[in-house]
Amino acid sequence: MPQVRGAGAHEPRQDPAGSSGKCGNRRRGVPGAPPAPRTTSPDAPQASTLSYLALARKYRPRRFGEVATQEHVSETLRRAVAGGRVGHAYLFCGPRGVGKTTLARILAMALNCPTRTAEGEPCGICDNCEHIWGGHTSLDVVEIDAASNRGVDDARELRARAMLAPSDEHRHKVYILDEAHMLTREAWNALLKILEEPPPRVIFCFATTEARRIQQSASPILSRCQRFDFRRIGTDDIMRRLAEVLDAEEIPFDGEALRAIARKASGGMRDGLSLLDQVLALSDSEVGIEAVVRILGVVAEERYLQILDVIISRSHGAVFDFVEELLDEGHDLVEFYHGLAERLRLLLRLALDPGKPPAEMAGAYLDDYARRAESFAPGDLVRMLSMASALESDGSLRRTGRPRVMVEMLLLRMSYLDRTVELEEVIRTLGGAPERAPAPAKAPPLPPTPHAQSPKTPLRAVTSGAGRDRGGEAAPADTRAADPAAAPARDIVTQKDLQAAWKSLMEDKARVRAVAPGLWTFLKAADPREADGELLLEVPPGLEPARWRNRQVLGELEEALALHAGRDSAKISVVERRDSDGEGGGRVTPETVRETRLQELVRHAPQLERAIEELELDLVD
Length: 621
Fold this sequence. Notes:
Layout: H1 55-58, H2 71-83, E1 89-93, H3 100-112, H4 127-133, E2 141-145, H5 152-162, E3 173-178, H6 185-196, E4 202-208, H7 211-217, H8 219-222, E5 226-229, H9 235-249, H10 255-265, H11 269-282, H12 289-296, H13 301-313, H14 318-328, H15 333-352, H16 366-373, H17 378-393, H18 396-399, H19 403-416, H20 423-429, H21 439-442, H22 457-463, H23 465-469, H24 474-482, H25 487-491, H26 495-507, H27 509-515, H28 520-525, E6 527-531, E7 534-539, H29 551-565, E8 572-576, H30 590-603, H31 606-615
Parallel strand pairs: 1-4, 1-5, 2-3, 3-4, 7-8
Antiparallel strand pairs: 6-7
């Protein structure tokens, strides 16, 4: 016979008085709270040590509207009861302690309550409701532990019992199977027929924390059930419920203590109430943060703030002392690791949107975390979170027998982490780049006038050998003043002139090898083209040699090209060939010009180039 879960006879019956939602008082400091849960009746026997009713059972919801967070399930079931559209089988999936079995019981109460409201809510105070809510043995509502009744024989016996009619023509038989994923494949197969063609007024409620296992072992069951996925309960909802319970018990509490308990509960209301029971067992006069830290082993917020200060100040040696203190206090390093990852995530939210603090961080420590968030760039926090996530993804932290070493190495890597800096900050730190250097990179093509090349002349004076020999910017001005008639002929250089000058230079093999040693093969394979008054050398992808980055070599080559072109200065850049046949027939695109300009920006700012090499930066337009 399947084992029927029920409460002992020693449990005191709950007082029906005050159970209606119309007469409940709002709880102190909890806006929008539901009516106060009922407490034990004054004339009931006084609870002894052996008959103490746990808070998770004492304050279990009795109506659909009292179930926190699961409105998408409770409201659907309530409307189904009110409209007479209750299905014959339901599959409740979700984490532990979020209300799966509770809603199954409330559904059974609503179906068998003689004074059910028109909206589908059970009264919660009649004998039938009290009996079902307490989990007592009943002919019509049977709760079965599928973990211990998982075989095919148990399923066959359940099927035979379900064929019997309810005890009354107005009642429904409800079978609640908890931990349904523990049923064997054969047991599920034995239930297929009755789930497909169930007897009248028979309801099955399957509750599971691992729906995936049911999908693997009994996928045909899914099409015979209405599936509801339960959600984890938010921290604020758990805190609100804990505050309601403590107010009903007339026990003072600290808000930070409730927040710590709610976080520890990890989305489970039952876990939160059970943890509160533990804290009350230690200190029943008040719920304070000290008692919570002591009994639950929760790491205090001050500890997280302390390690963040260590990372910010790069006090590498303090990491070992910090971990030693955690162990001396009896903290679990895995628990600390999870808490640290959560704080880093909250810091990232503060860094990205300082004006919208996350609800999880509301409290006395919000300002402390906000100040520390200012010390991190978002990119740093992302990398630190990636480091922490790596330990979680591969499971190494839980498998290792030495979590201390892994946590210490994680904290040391975070403290040694190079900080993300903005490009402008790098340039300011290195002394600043010439303000006029970026100007030609963004300037549109200029009309062919005698002064068309004047904006680019200062740049040639910075890096080009030709510009240096002429004494910077003054030499071109003196040349134009001496021979104004010849200036247009020297400054207006057409595409044919540039290409012709390059071909003429390539014919002077000895000079090319003298000014650009080791680059003859590379230059010979290049295809010269013109864009924005510059000579672009298109080369096959990956052919550009490292020596091409030498500013002195490039300056001398530009000086030689300027002499062959009959002008004061010339500009040479290299781009990768874009055509597929590799014969240089592709057109110069805006993308290639943009890449070339970025290269020129680097070439004309020595401090920026040095920063890119030393810090391994990526430059974007």
